[in-house]
Amino acid sequence: MNYKEEEFKKIKIVYEDEDLLALFKPKNLSVHGDEKTEEKTLSDWILENYPELKNVGEPIISNEKTEILRPGIVHRLDKDTSGIILVAKNQEFFLFLKNQFQERIIEKTYLAFVYGNVKFDKKNINTAIGRSKKDFRRWATNREIRGEEREAITEYEKILTAKKTFGEFSFLKVKPKTGRTHQIRVHLKYDNHPILADHLYAGALFKRENPEENLFFETQALFAWKIKFQKKDGDFLELEAQIPEEFAQAEKILRES
């Protein structure tokens, strides 16, 4: 069994009812395929375990103009971001959730470790995001944007900050108010506090040789912790994923400062 297969087996059901499946997605696992790799994805797991969801939701069109299935998946997480993700079990509930995302009714809460001493206890970042001029893989802010700019708002709250012999770090609770690609990663870089071990946005701060300087994170230290949404009966439900061991260990290292 290779590493990817091990991650595939770490997918867990957080919550399930007749309309909804909430899953824990491990890091290093894509939500859906891109036709460039045969690695298993979260969509593959859904189709293997819930084949009846094949036609629920909306597929995306690849660069090769073919359909990529996203069975019941309403939103997404980056490949190296772990945490909770919602899957609709029927088309009616898919559209119901989709509307909540569009109307910004759904609340998402992430945990993140970042480089540097975050000075503010709470902060609101409101700056547009667009494609980067320099790197097609990245998104950017301000003059680095090419093409369309899209509104993006992120709030964060500082949990703790600590200085170690190998650098300063902060632990944040982050709430994106909009749902742009790479939004939290881009906004925290814009705030001069990129996420630990973020190979796209941390730049020279991402130390590859000494894992201690990244609090032992191998990939971006971003975790989709909680999500709150409305059910069909009008009541709100908040779901929470179990915090990964590496996040608990990193917090312990900082608190022992």
Describe this structure in words.
The chain is an alpha+beta fold and 257 residues long. The strands form 3 sheets. Strands 1, 2, 5, 6, 7, 11, 12, 13 and 14 form a 9-stranded mixed β-sheet that branches. It has 5 helices and 14 strands. Strand 11 (153-164) and strand 12 form a beta hairpin. It folds into 2 domains: 1-103, Pseudouridine synthase (2-Layer Sandwich), CATH 3.30.2350.10; 105-257, Pseudouridine synthase, CATH 3.30.2350.
Write the layout of secondary structure elements.
Elements: H1 3-8, E1 12-16, E2 20-25, H2 42-49, E3 60-61, E4 67-68, E5 82-88, H3 91-102, E6 107-115, E7 122-126, E8 129-132, E9 139-140, E10 145-150, E11 153-164, E12 167-176, H4 183-190, E13 222-230, E14 236-240, H5 245-255
Parallel strand pairs: 5-13
Antiparallel strand pairs: 1-2, 2-5, 3-4, 6-12, 6-13, 7-11, 8-9, 8-10, 11-12, 13-14
Q: What labels describe this entry?
A:
single chain; 14 strands; alpha+beta; 5 helices; 257 residues; nine-stranded mixed β-sheet; 18% helix; Pseudouridine synthase; three-stranded antiparallel β-sheet
In brief:
The chain has 257 residues and is of the alpha+beta class. It has five helices and 14 strands. A hairpin with a 5-residue loop joins strand 3 and strand 4.
